[in-house]
Amino acid sequence: MKKLVYLSCLAAFVLAGCKQSTPTTVYSKSQKDAILDNIQTRRAVRKYKDKQVSKEQIDTIMKCAIFAPSALNKQPWEIRVVRKPEILQEINNRFLKYAEGKDMKGSAAHYKEPGFSVFHGAPTLVVIARDKSNDYSMMDCGSAMQNILLSAHALGLGTCPIGSLVPVFNLPENKDVLELLNIPKDYAVAISLALGYADEQPTAPQRYPDRVKIIE
Ligand SMILES: Cc1cc2nc3c(=O)[nH]c(=O)nc-3n(C[C@H](O)[C@H](O)[C@H](O)COP(=O)(O)O)c2cc1C
After folding, report:
1. What angle do CA 88, 94, 99 make, to 5 degrees?
2. Which domains does the chain have, with CATH numbers?
């Protein structure tokens, strides 16, 4: 009998070790409201304070990033948090070189203005690269991006996806920048994100609720 109890305890212990279970979370009304509010009040921020984000904040945000879902749990991303002013300057310079003479769209269209920063002068730029051999990697990197946007917003920080930098990072002539960021050869940049303390409170651009239809 003693042996049986011992063996079942051992089996339970081994099983518990194999599978990390997440307890079902029950949120209070105010917690639910806060979570839903966080999703709806996040905005693309295009003006930042001259104040760096702390390492602790970065750790929290990156933990949220890697908890994004991914197809087959492959986690086909390589994420770099760039805070070195010289590297940020160089990335902006590469963008300016790329943009020269081109008809750029959105905020990038202002590239000829003095002091222009493609990542809106944010003190931190997050670069998310995707495994090119994984068909779902763009989607998975998008999920990681959204976790970054929302967790940063929950911490009181501002963010902005910077798609304008994607073709710049992936140009063969800018391979040295990817090498500097230690991005593996079989990866390409999927998206980059400005991160910092917001110095503006943008209003939400128009949404199109009619693009959602319930079929029943
Ligand atoms: C994939 C992607 C790329 C984007 N690229 C840029 C960009 O290069 N520069 C910029 O200022 N905003 C960029 N944005 C921000 C969008 O313009 C913004 O999310 C959209 O206008 C909706 O505004 P909201 O985020 O405040 O709701 C990008 C957003 C996404 C999702």
Report:
1. 125
2. 47-200 (3.40.109.10)
Task: Give the pLDDT of the chain (216 residues) as one tens digit per residue.
Answer: 555 555 554 455 444 544 567 778 899 999 999 999 999 999 999 999 999 999 999 999 999 999 999 999 999 999 999 999 999 999 999 999 999 999 999 999 999 999 999 999 999 999 999 999 999 999 999 999 999 999 999 999 999 999 999 999 999 999 999 999 999 999 999 999 999 999 999 999 999 999 999 999
Copy the structure tokens of residue 137.
């990697």
- Site to probe by mutation for ligand 1, drawn from 120, 162, 165, 200 as the one with most ligand atoms within 8 Å of Cβ, is 162
Pocket of ligand 1 contains residue 163 by CB under 6 Å: yes
Q: Measured in Å, how far apart are the chain's first and last C-alpha atoms?
A: 57
